């Protein structure tokens, strides 16, 4: 493997690594972006923030004592789990592609630490006007909500293309929540947000069946499982490869790939998708980035029998 991880001053996205004195908005002490190159493709992971959710969301088919033991082993509190929320910006050829869009805002859900996307894009020197394509791994609110924030929609180009699996759009016309296990209020919020998104952006939607090449070396592939149209984005250039797995893989999924996440609409299929993907990534050694893995969510998968292990990439900057 020869993935070259470089800092962004070498890329053509014209990014700033330092805080900007006198710039707009509060300056943040913790970095919210991490850039790397996959061959000719520039990739930047950007944090939309953190979602604090009940610990039970990690697995509703697990013995609570086993779940509590996992959290304890990870030095985490027993009752709440902070989920990272990452999006990715990809620059390939003359296209700038935003993969997922973060939470946006919904005050009723009490998730004030997420929904930072527009501020953090700006801090990274990425203009919303420069985005030519959006790819959605699926239409849960924490992946589309950022597109519904007022100032975001106004600044996006009118000819923006939004790529999403046809099965995902169809699913949200009459979504099945019978196999999920979400906190109160979430199913209604997810339904309402997906509906609003489909209404506001139907002219921009470019649906695909199973696979679509969005830009040179940037392919979105439907996996199903988490939602019927859930998709992953695969980058390949110059012998380097990276997969953005969306919600196919969570932090707990390495130790317990068979645990059913509370947000999975078909949890058994989601577990099969997860194991298949982890085995493939372990075999080919490519980089993995996933929405809810701790920022900067960049690493590789090791496997020993039925046990997977997350191996974070060394920061190179
Ligand atoms: Zn998610």
From TrEMBL:
<dbReference type="GO" id="GO:0046872">
    <property type="term" value="F:metal ion binding"/>
</dbReference>
<feature type="domain" description="Metallo-beta-lactamase">
    <location>
        <begin position="84"/>
        <end position="292"/>
    </location>
</feature>
<keyword id="KW-0378">Hydrolase</keyword>
<dbReference type="InterPro" id="IPR001279">
    <property type="entry name" value="Metallo-B-lactamas"/>
</dbReference>
<keyword id="KW-0479">Metal-binding</keyword>
<dbReference type="InterPro" id="IPR036866">
    <property type="entry name" value="RibonucZ/Hydroxyglut_hydro"/>
</dbReference>
<dbReference type="GO" id="GO:0016787">
    <property type="term" value="F:hydrolase activity"/>
</dbReference>
<keyword id="KW-0862">Zinc</keyword>
<feature type="region of interest" description="Disordered">
    <location>
        <begin position="1"/>
        <end position="28"/>
    </location>
</feature>
<comment type="similarity">
    <text>Belongs to the metallo-beta-lactamase superfamily.</text>
</comment>
<dbReference type="Pfam" id="PF00753">
    <property type="entry name" value="Lactamase_B"/>
</dbReference>
<protein>
    <submittedName>
        <fullName>Glyoxylase, beta-lactamase superfamily II</fullName>
    </submittedName>
</protein>
<dbReference type="InterPro" id="IPR051013">
    <property type="entry name" value="MBL_superfamily_lactonases"/>
</dbReference>
<feature type="compositionally biased region" description="Polar residues">
    <location>
        <begin position="1"/>
        <end position="20"/>
    </location>
</feature>
């Amino acid at each position: 493997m020869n993935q070259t991880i470089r800092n962004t001053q070498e890329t053509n996205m014209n990014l700033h690594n330092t805080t900007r004195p006198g710039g707009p908005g509060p300056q943040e002490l913790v970095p919210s972006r991490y850039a790397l190159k996959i061959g000719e493709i520039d990739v930047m992971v950007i944090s939309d923030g953190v979602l604090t959710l009940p610990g039970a969301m990690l697995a509703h088919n697990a013995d609570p004592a086993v779940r509590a033991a996992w959290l304890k082993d990870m030095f985490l509190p027993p009752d709440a789990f902070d989920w990272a929320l990452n999006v990715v910006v990809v620059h390939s050829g003359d296209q700038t592609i935003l993969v997922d869009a973060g939470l946006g805002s919904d005050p009723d859900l009490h998730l004030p630490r997420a929904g930072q996307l527009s501020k953090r894009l700006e801090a990274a020197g990425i203009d919303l006007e420069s985005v030519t394509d959006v790819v959605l791994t699926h239409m849960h609110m924490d992946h589309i909500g950022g597109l519904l924030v007022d100032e975001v929609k106004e600044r996006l180009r009118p000819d923006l293309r939004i790529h999403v699996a046809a099965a995902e759009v169809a699913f949200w016309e009459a979504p099945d929540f019978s196999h999920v296990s979400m906190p109160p209020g979430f199913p209604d919020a997810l339904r309402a947000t997906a509906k609003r998104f489909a209404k506001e952006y139907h002219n921009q939607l470019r649906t695909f069946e199973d696979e679509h090449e969005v830009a040179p070396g940037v392919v979105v592939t439907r996996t199903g499982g988490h939602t019927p149209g859930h998709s992953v984005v695969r980058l390949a250039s110059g012998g380097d490869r990276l997969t953005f797995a969306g919600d196919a893989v969570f932090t707990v999924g390495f130790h317990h790939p068979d645990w059913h996440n509370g947000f999975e609409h078909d949890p058994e299929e989601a577990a099969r998708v997860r194991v298949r993907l982890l085995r493939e990534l372990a075999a080919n050694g490519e980089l993995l980035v996933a929405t809810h893995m701790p920022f900067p969510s960049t690493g590789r998968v090791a496997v020993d029998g039925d046990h997977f292990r997350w191996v974070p990439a060394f920061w190179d900057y």
